[in-house]
Design a protein that fits this description.
Helix content is 43%, strand content 9%. The protein is an alpha/beta fold and 451 residues long. This is HTH CENPB-type domain-containing protein.
């Protein structure tokens, strides 16, 4: 067994205290040659440390740490890097540092990852520019509206709901599979549903699921389409392309109101939803007043941060649907899925999510979603923490915020740079009139009043 650095230091200290070298070697894990080597180092006032075996890293430790900081800063800027990007930057650094060109490959990257355990491979979620522009003021305004609605009556977790729609058809993406070594261009046949099906789901903060609603494409549907549905009170309708609109949503509001009256009596209900234009209309207000529904709209483009269904439910729901569809199509050796079977699969996935946990003390998936989003218990710090998490792109500590990291200003200046900040361009309202280049620049220089 190889002696540790602590055992070596202890053995050296015993010899310095007057014990014979032979006795120390016999009673410890330290070999004779090792003991003599470190005794000599101690007499020369050298630090007792065990040097790493093998070749030295291509980059000095300090430069590697700068590379890690650049990786974190790129993640904070919304431009996370790939393995190839890291290896290319490392090669540029080596060339600047030593003056020679050295190809760094997969082996170097594996050793680099082992030295820096804070790095890991992740799948980056694509977010539009609008979703990255959620601001603090919008979240505070939303929280105040939610607080006002809940304070209007003695609100409980059973009285606050979240509603949203999702698609039955899942987005296919590449995945890792097991194949014969040496195989090239491995592909998988895509089996998916050839039509669009919208599922409207609503859940309460206590984990209660409202029966789902299904929107099928077309103008008519089969009379037996709900016969295989696993949820007794589920409803179905049709739309030309199976997308929800204001008329269908108002009908759903009435259905939800009737369900609420049946299960919760005349108690008011707070309904959290996005502010999509396809949901609300002028007819929504009298329906909500009739059934005691208090609508609270989420901030624009913030559903991925603050909507419980998006945060905790839909991902698992869609995963269950995708697995069931693949299994059904393989078992039937078919490329088509009847609409009644699609509703059956979706309803079974719905039932699987709504089953109570083994322990009543364990929070359900839905309860965790409401708590994480700060909806129930209501928590403005939780909401703002999710916004801060997005701004930092998931980084919890201060890595990537070093003062030397600049936009384009040599290892720290010519290699590890960040993308340039976006240029804000002024836009001019033409009012259907023709403008010359002189008119455009003149209008841009004028200070526009905010409404």
């Amino acid at each position: 067994m190889v002696a540790t650095i602590e055992q070596i230091r202890e053995a050296v200290q015993r010899v310095l205290s007057g014990e014979s070298k032979a006795a120390v070697v016999r009673s410890s894990q330290v070999k004779r040659t090792t003991l003599f080597k470190f005794l000599k180092a101690t007499n020369n006032s050298e630090v007792i440390e065990r040097k790493k075996s093998g070749r030295k890293p291509s980059l000095p430790n300090g430069v590697e740490q700068d590379l890690v900081s650049w990786i974190a800063a790129m993640q904070r800027a919304g431009c996370p890097v790939t393995r190839h990007d890291i290896m290319m930057k490392a090669q540029q650094i080596v060339q600047l540092h030593s003056g020679i060109t050295q190809n760094l490959g997969r082996g170097w990257y594996q050793r680099f990852s082992q030295r820096h355990q804070e790095l890991s491979d992740r799948i980056a979620q694509s977010l539009t520019k609008a979703r990255n522009n959620v601001d603090k003021d919008g979240i505070i305004l939303y929280f105040n509206r939610l607080l006002k609605a809940c304070l209007a009556f003695n609100c409980s977790p059973s009285d606050i709901y979240n509603v949203d729609e999702t698609s039955f058809k899942t987005k296919n993406s590449s995945k890792k599979v097991v194949a014969i070594r040496g195989s090239q261009s491995v592909w998988a046949t895509e089996k998916s549903v050839p039509y669009h099906l919208t599922i409207v789901a609503a859940v309460a903060a206590d984990g209660t699921f409202v029966p789902p609603a299904f929107i099928l494409p077309g103008l008519t549907c089969e009379a037996v389409v709900l016969d295989e549905c696993a949820v007794h009170d589920a409803v179905v309708t049709t739309a030309p392309k199976a997308f929800i609109n204001a008329h269908i949503f108002n009908n759903w509001l009435e259905t939800f109101g009737e369900w609420k009256m049946k299960h919760r009596g005349c108690r008011p209900a707070v309904l959290v939803m996005d502010n999509c234009a396809s949901h609300l209309s002028s007819e929504s207000t009298p329906i909500c007043q009739a059934y005691g529904i208090l609508l609270v709209c989420l901030p624009p483009n913030a559903t991925h941060l603050l909507q419980p269904l998006d945060v905790s439910v839909f991902r698992t729901f869609k995963r269950k649907i995708k697995a069931a569809v693949t299994q059904e199509l393989r078992a039937s050796n078919s490329w088509t899925l009847p609409r009644s079977k699609a509703i059956s699969i979706a309803s079974n996935a719905f039932v699987g999510l709504s089953k109570p946990t083994v322990s009543s003390k364990t929070p359900t998936l839905v309860q965790n979603g409401f708590r994480t989003c700060g909806v129930w218990p209501m928590s403005l710090p939780c909401m703002l923490a999710r916004l801060d998490m997005q701004k930092a792109n998931g980084i919890k500590d201060t890595v990537g915020t070093e003062s030397w990291i600049k936009t384009r200003e040599v290892v720290r200046e010519d290699v590890l740079f960040l993308p340039a900040k976006p240029v804000v361009r002024k836009r001019i309202k033409t009012n259907s009139e023709w403008h010359s280049i002189k008119d455009l620049h003149a209008a841009a220089s004028k200070r526009q009043k905010r409404k």
